[in-house]
Each structure stands twice: as C-alpha cells, then as structure tokens.
Write a structure and sequence with these properties.
Strand content: under 5%
Largest sheet: none
C-alpha cells in the first residue's frame, strides 16, 4: 500500500498491530475490500481516517501527502519558533547582565565623584 510508504509505516508495524504475519499484511494490502475491523486498526496506525484510506488514489495522493507535509512543516516551524525564543531569552539575559554591570560602574563613578567633591569642599571650607 503506497499510503504506508508515504506515511513512513512499514508492513512489519502493521503486522504487529494486526497481530498477523508480514506476509499476511502484504496480501491484505493488495485486496480491494479489507475487513472493517482490520481497516480501522490500519487507520489508527496510519493516523488517517478510514474514509481517506478507502478513497486513496495512487494517481492522486495529494490529500494525505499534503497533510503529512503540513504536519512536518508545522513541527519544523514550532521547532524554529522555540529555538528563536530560547535565543531571544539568552540575548535578553545577556543584555540585562550588561546593563547591570554598566549601572554598577556608573554608581561607582558617581560615588567617587561625590567623594572628590566632598574632599574639595572640606579643603576650601565650603560645605
């Protein structure tokens, strides 16, 4: 069944799910009419609707493969967004550390200037 190939599911996986041999799966997938109970198990393994499996056309697999590509695209997009978020958080943390260091340096310089002014005022007697 080409649909298994598109979805990346091997016959052995279907065999385990259906509790039959791989050879039996191969024969089963070449039948036009598959037992409804087995079809529902196949649909669950493929994560597809039974109707989509029944209406699957070898010449026009766009409906299902588009969904596969869409899912892969969504997963990739989510991964990229997550990585960008992590990078943004790292940059924000670095910026905060840098600003805190600059603030501490400015405070130190301000205190040194105030001390110089106080010493100068004491020497001249103006306070």
């Amino acid at each position: 069944m080409r649909l298994c190939e598109i979805k990346g599911i091997k016959q052995i996986e279907l065999a385990h799910a259906l509790n039959i041999s791989q050879q039996a799966v191969s024969k089963l997938l070449h039948h036009e009419n598959i037992d409804p109970q087995k079809l529902s198990i196949i649909a669950a393994v493929l994560k597809e609707k039974i109707e989509d499996i029944r209406s699957f056309n070898e010449e026009k697999p766009m409906n299902i493969s588009e969904r596969v590509n869409s899912t892969q695209h969504d997963e990739l997009e989510n991964h990229i967004v997550l990585e960008l978020y992590k990078k943004n958080m790292q940059l924000s943390e670095q910026t905060i550390r840098l600003l805190n260091a600059q603030l501490q340096q400015s405070e130190k310089e301000k205190n040194e200037l105030l001390q110089q002014i106080e010493r100068g005022n004491r020497k001249t007697g103006t306070e």
